[in-house]
Amino acid sequence: xxxxxxxxxxxxxxxxxxxxxxxxxxxxxxxxxxxxxxxxxxxxxxxxxxxxxxxxxxxxxxxxxxxxxxxxxxxxxxxxxxxxxxxxxxxxxxxxxxxxxxxxxxxxxxxxxxxxxxxxxxxxxxxxxxxxxxxxxxxxxxxxxxxxxxxxxxxxxxxxxxxxxxxxxxxxxxxxxxxxxxxxxxxxxxx
Length: 191
What we know:
- By secondary structure, this protein is an all-alpha fold.
- It has a domain at 10-47 and 99-190.
- It contains 7 helices and no strands.
- It has helices at residues 7-20, 22-41, 43-71, 78-97, 99-131, 136-155, 164-190.
- The longest helix has 33 residues, at 99-131.
- It is globular and about 50 Å long.
- The mean pLDDT is 88.
C-alpha cells in the first residue's frame, strides 16, 4: 500500500475506513468494557492473572531472544542482546514462581505505565482534534483517566499492590472500551 501524497486524501481514507468498519470498533469496545468490569469486580484475581500473564510474556520473549541471539552471535552487540534475553527469562521465572510478591514491583511499573500512557493518549487526542474532529474528546478523557489512575496507585503503595493491578487494568480496559465505543458511534453518525 502506498501512502497518499495529499493530506486531504489521507483524511478522507481514514474517515472512510472508520465509517466502513465502525461495527468492528463497537464490538471491540464492548468486549474491552466487559473485561474491564470483570477485572474491577475481582481485582485481586485480576492482579494475579496479569502478573502470571506478564511472567509468561517475559519468559517466552526471553527464550525467543536467546534463540535469536544464538543465531546472530556474529553480529555486533551479541553480549548486550544475550544479557537482555537472560534478564527477560529471569524476570519471567521470578514472576511465575512468586506472582504474589511480584505484584508490588508490577504495581510500581503499572503506575509509571499509566502515567506515560495518559500523556501519550492526551497528545494523540490533540492530534485528532486538529485532524479528525469529532473523535478526540473520547481519547482525551481516556488519557486524563490514565493519569488519575497512576497517581492513585503510586500514592497508595505498598497497600495498593494487592488490588491495584487488577483494578487499574479493569479501569483502563473499561475506558479504552468506552473510547472505542464513542469513536464507533461518532463514525456511524458520520455515515
